[in-house]
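Today's session is about reading a structure prediction critically. Students often jump straight to the picture, but the first step is always the sequence itself: look for stretches that repeat, for charged clusters, for runs of hydrophobic residues. Only then move on to the predicted structure, which in these notes is written as discrete structure tokens rather than atom positions. Here is the chain we will use throughout the hour.
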Amino acid sequence: MAQEEKPNPIQTQSEEEGGMRPGNGDIRVLLVGINDYKDERVKDLGGCISDINRVESFLKNRFGIEPSTPASNTGSDPIKEFKTYPIPHDGYNQLMICRLEDGQATYANIVQAFHDFLKPAGVNDRVWFHFSGHGTQSPTAEEFFNLEGGEDQCLVCHDFTVDAETKEIKNLLADKELAVLLNEVASGDGGTPHMVITLDCCHSGGATRDATISDHNFKSRHTVVDASGLRLLGSYLNGHYTDLVERGGHLEVPASAHVVMTACNNLQLAGELGGGFFTAGLIDALESVGGKISYADLQVRTRAAVRKKGRDQTPQFDVLGGAKAYTRFLEGTPEGDPDKYEVKFQNGAWTVACGAIQGMSTQAMQKMATSGNQPILLEVFSFESADKEKPAAIAKILEVGPQYSTIGPLEEGGELGLNARGSYYGMLNYFPAEPSFVKITGTPDAVQAFKDNWANYSKIGAKNIHFATEPDPDKPQDLEVVIGPDSYRIKDRQTGKFADAEYGLATPNEVLIDLIQIVNWRRLRDLENTDPKSNLKVRIDQEDGSFQLKDKITLKIDFEGKGDIVVEPQPEDQGNTLVLKATKTNSISNDHPNERYFHLTPKITIEGKTEPLYFYLFKLWSWYGITADEEKKSEGVAADKTKLLEFQRFRWGIAEEEESDTAYFKLVATSEELDYHQLLQDGVWDGRGRPKLEFKPEASGFKDWAVATLKVTIVRES
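Below is the predicted structure for this chain, in token form.
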């Protein structure tokens, strides 16, 4: 029968989850690798045993275990046949490794390994569960349907099968079962160990689709479940959830404190080519720094390592139940400093100044491979409090907008207990978008002086911007500050061009302010709402079980020439990128202020049922300036209707000394008014005349929202 579930409260920054506890601890590692599957309908893999060999080799090197060191072996069955090595340093007692390979990795054996091998871990110990094999998704139990979106994300065990007659699914380890197993480890009598989960398989990050693979040497770690019925609630982990309900408990997936790292996001496949791309990237990243790295930094390095292998695969990192992103891998000791964001009460709600532009997930939830959907947590601290270690409140993200996110108490009907007139900041227990790295070049003294000033400029960290003085392939530096004898210059390493402005050595803060402008510009340019629940997108299901999201709102710009400028017709398949041609005489200059430019008229098409919406058209200029038109409002559109809106016509051209210029036009549609003036900025330029628009501040607020982007380049013909 199922074990009684013990409560596992959310931990705060001041508690000891994952910290270095007194006394020696063990490191318990459960490695599961499955190349060969029992059911002939499941495609065999080739790199999963190599994966767990690589993990074991890393662990031995990390903790100084010589190849000649004999292991203490125990027992004869797969679970008790684990190896134990004494650890000579770092304050740990012993490294314990349990391997389940191919036929050993049955559903029953994996569950037993959690109970017999991992569950004895205590508060001083570390636990790592790594799985390499197939992943899939299958229909969830009816009782979970509304809670989890109708699907289980599953690890495919060696003995997985589907009964030919009853279509009953057997021997998939669902996310809701893995959550219970982890909670049992966390709730043991010895206290909660620091736990790390790594899953190198498809559907480990909440995946919802498959894809066609053209490389014949590549294998996808995805398998298709042929099942027609929903899973029964009693089939999960020997009746755990039915026992819970019968005892009068609330049906919910437990959330224990752990860090989970998975191979890919929900639109990608985990792949292998002699070994899992994710496992290889993860171990490459760990070995590059000797294993001493925070989870936040490890995310950046692992993604970069996977990209270097040529894979369109984005590993996902998540924290749950009070585990910390800024702690050292596998050890849990503090490592690094999280960004801080302003928290304030505005327009009747508590908000944090971190939205989609700063990298917040637009779904306001983490799709956890180990525990289903879980909220993103925020620790709120008071600027006035003398105790900077104790949070004033722990909140969850309720709704994510472009600039701000609304927050609320963990429990329905609860209160945050904050003073609406108080001064607060928040720290996210969450992995945001990848940071921006800035290269700094100059003399050692000049570089150090700039770094010291950077450290004292608090706004930089809040934008997730970090400096680097040495090349680092895992941290692409796409901006550069060049320190000369008399000035600073900013170089955009994406375009290879220097920004217009030069800065005196006495004004380093101006450099930092403009770096923030460039990063803000890029994040607005790349802003997307990927939440499939948005009513501003139409879901189109495909025959292979995947789906596409089609926008109800599209942006088009009509162009007209002025003077002798000619607008050439653009190919229909050019998508969201347009190129305009200008001759040698087509330049804007002081001698010709009102001619030789293009007229641009932005137009919006709304197709299908929408509620009343506000529209904002942002113009992102090449000097990183952002301007905007006055908002447009639509009263809503019926399901079978189409509506057109038109923004005011404006002009644009290139200067005599320019050969080309590029601008982005970003349409943002929201169901409530946006405080859009906070996104506007003058840009980085040397004072030459640039087009400006007047604008007025509007009330803040957001619910549903969508974006459309159009890139336009003017190129001078030879």
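Discussion point for the tutorial: DSSP finds ten helices and 38 strands in the chain.
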